[in-house]
Amino acid sequence: MSTVTSDRIWTAALIVIGDEILSGRTQDKNVAQIASWLNVQGIRLREVRVVADDAAAIGEAVNILRARSDYLFTTGGIGPTHDDITVDAIAAALGVDVIVHPEAEAVLERYYRERGGLTEARLRMARVPRGSSLIPNRMSGAPGIRFENIFIMAGVPHITAGMLDALTGTLEGGAPLLSGQVGSWVAESEIADFLASTERAHAGSQIGSYPFFREGRVGANFVVRATQQNVLDSCMDALVAGLEERGWPVTRGGI
Amino acid sequence: MSTVTSDRIWTAALIVIGDEILSGRTQDKNVAQIASWLNVQGIRLREVRVVADDAAAIGEAVNILRARSDYLFTTGGIGPTHDDITVDAIAAALGVDVIVHPEAEAVLERYYRERGGLTEARLRMARVPRGSSLIPNRMSGAPGIRFENIFIMAGVPHITAGMLDALTGTLEGGAPLLSGQVGSWVAESEIADFLASTERAHAGSQIGSYPFFREGRVGANFVVRATQQNVLDSCMDALVAGLEERGWPVTRGGI
Hints:
Chains A, B: Pfam families: FLAD1_M, MoCF_biosynth. The first copy, chain A, is an alpha/beta fold and 255 residues long.
């Protein structure tokens, strides 16, 4: 147990690749899914970019973000069709060749044996930047790809979920971010100053305020985040006590 | 009617601001909502970034993206609480002061007259970068903000929607992107080469392939996009004819 290690904040970035997200046709689910998964690994998602199926846009984002976070994830563009250019774009950005990964080819060979055979288009899904390892995909055969600190994942959320499962517990991370939540039927603007002073009084805590309008009334949930349990607890206690003193009863866990 | 104008592609970028998106707590809806709205305005969403409630991260993204797209939208961080720092971060990035906009103050004064009065925290929502105009908000009083080509919008999706309504038809845009869709119970990998050659044969068209697994079977929807109706029509016709020739009946409009 070293203090240096436990204080280090491990970070990740995510690139969501796909014209279908930028056109509004498809509602992205991977940002929230990967963010939640990273929290449990003790890694903070620091930045997300959504880029088109365009090699230059993908390459630019990859080279900037892999340098400034500990881990870089990408989703989308690793299927069998002509608009799936993620592997080629990333390999070009890294300056490495694309090769057919023998283990990926064997996985696809087995998967498609009873499903019409391994066509040339399907074999595209075995192509990886030279030097990559594979991320198992128990949902649909075609694996994800790891190259150094870059994790190249599927775009379809339930396939991405399977790849995340396969990675769970395998990444070096820092202290998990703890959180607690309370809700109250209060307009956040009534207590904005109180929230700010409570956060300031508890170093290492963060208070997020999430207003809503339901059943004809305004209310808000308040989420306290900290990496240390004692900081989380004392900030939560102060928040609850302060709200109740001001005449706003709270619901533990949120409304 | 000049050819130059109609051929120009108008572009936008979007910055989604908020720790709640990066922590996975909140599922973003604004990317899809703004993308769809932009399509109808004849403007293409080219890039999205999701950044934390952090002045440096917001400022960096604003200065890069406002320079490389015709329009820049931001969502989130314009409420009354201490974690709402969007206006200050953008003003700092632009090198302009923050002022209380008199018209915004009057709007908030009226809105809160029957709702507990205009407190100091609520008055924060009248603060704008000097030189801004307002975007009406019929949902909840606090207006959005326009500064040159930057549109600073709410984070709560139904409030953002109201602001987009107020902007509809007011932005200069190019030719709207037209689209058509067909679906078929085919594995996309079976017809990947046909899709690629069909797209190549119809300059100005784009074919997106969106596989799914339903009712125990694989299928895919195919979306053709083009700015010219005749290009869209001929590409769609070729796609439908080619699929049916290959033994894959299509459903117009998608499955």
